[in-house]
């Protein structure tokens, strides 16, 4: 992957700079989401699947995994909303 210098970016017209900024923000958001998915997978899999005994997960393990990820998502949404409200004050 090639690097773009600040000088090269400053040579772009304003519309291109805005488009580039939006693209970078979008890619950063995707990277954060992917990172969260890896964290959820790691934590929930270790918690819910103590050993691998077959080619799939049992119904109990599946329920545990679903609940685990749901709690992480609920917690993240709660924290984001709390931070958002505190920033508005």
From TrEMBL:
UniProt KW Transport keyword: yes
Membrane topology: Peripheral membrane protein
Record carries keyword Metal-binding: no
Keywords: Chaperone, Disulfide bond, Membrane, Mitochondrion, Mitochondrion inner membrane, Protein transport, Translocation, Transport
GO terms classed as biological process: protein transport
Pfam families in alphabetical order: zf-Tim10_DDP (PF02953)
Record note on quaternary structure: Heterohexamer.
Function: Mitochondrial intermembrane chaperone that participates in the import and insertion of some multi-pass transmembrane proteins into the mitochondrial inner membrane. Also required for the transfer of beta-barrel precursors from the TOM complex to the sorting and assembly machinery (SAM complex) of the outer membrane. Acts as a chaperone-like protein that protects the hydrophobic precursors from aggregation and guide them through the mitochondrial intermembrane space.
Assigned protein family: Belongs to the small Tim family.
Domain notes: The twin CX3C motif contains 4 conserved Cys residues that form 2 disulfide bonds in the mitochondrial intermembrane space.
Name of the protein this chain belongs to: Mitochondrial import inner membrane translocase subunit
